Amino acid sequence: MSTSNSGFLAGAADIGRRLLRDRAALLGFALILLLVLAALFAPWLATHPTDVYEIHTARRLTPPGAEHWLGTDRMGADIYSRLLFGARITILIAVIAVGTAVLIGVPIGLVAGYYRNWFSDLLMRLSDIFLAVPQIVLAIAIAQTLGPSIENVILALSATYWPFWARLVYAETRSVKNETFVEAAIALGASAPRVMLLHILPNIASAIIVRTSIGMGATILTAAALGFLGLGAPPPTPEWGRTIAESREYLPEAWWYALAPGIAIFLVVMGFNLLGDGLRDILDPRIRRGGREP
């Protein structure tokens, strides 16, 4: 085994040990793992997998019981089964939207932070324009213009979220560029793309990972808000935000209708936030030097 592979495995093992000692981060990881497993095995875990998109008026708004663990909705569909299939939509929206935002924001921040010219200033002013408007307001405007669909929600979130990564990477790049090892690489004749990709990017990867974890939670919450406003997936898609919006008409009698998706959103967002905070403590060397690591 090569020295580089040994070093990578040792670093990964060290991160794993630190993660196991951080109970909050471990709880967050467990919640996220639960979401992923629920999405992957939804057809087998659901008690009524064939009824997710069907209408059963005879059993509409049935309270929780032995047959329907979380009750039924206004169409008589099993809420527990729809919750599991809705996890797939949640993961799809979050992964694609955040992934697209990272692919857009990281290169922009990297280039703008490395070069100090009018082009880098233009890129940062462009991100400032997006950041000047609250993300949820801009996402609502874009989704309203394009119409309700999963694809448009992903587009709205991606278009409004990339500046957060661009700003983060810009600041980190400006800081790392002044380090001795970067100046040495430049003095030895390394090209700008090589310096950015091989020397700067690996040293700011921890900040990107932490921001991505926390960003996943924020994206899920914003997607649920868009669904609640009727700008997300159209019915009868089992999207969590839309389910809560549909339940308003039947509250407080059918309290279970909104309770299940509401708790699901809360737990998933909390999971990503806890994991992000834990990864920040583990991966950020400045925090470890400050004595916060056990």
UniProtKB/TrEMBL annotation:
One biological process term in Gene Ontology: transmembrane transport
Claim: Repressor is one of the keywords in the record: no
Domain ABC transmembrane type-1, first and last residues per copy: 87-276
UniProt cross-references to InterPro entries, sorted A to Z: BP-dependent_transpt_permease, MetI-like, MetI-like_sf, OppC_N
Keyword ATP-binding: no
Family affiliation: Belongs to the binding-protein-dependent transport system permease family.
Record's protein name: D-ala-D-ala transporter subunit
Organism of derivation: Teichococcus rhizosphaerae
Taxonomy of the source species: Bacteria, Pseudomonadati, Pseudomonadota, Alphaproteobacteria, Acetobacterales
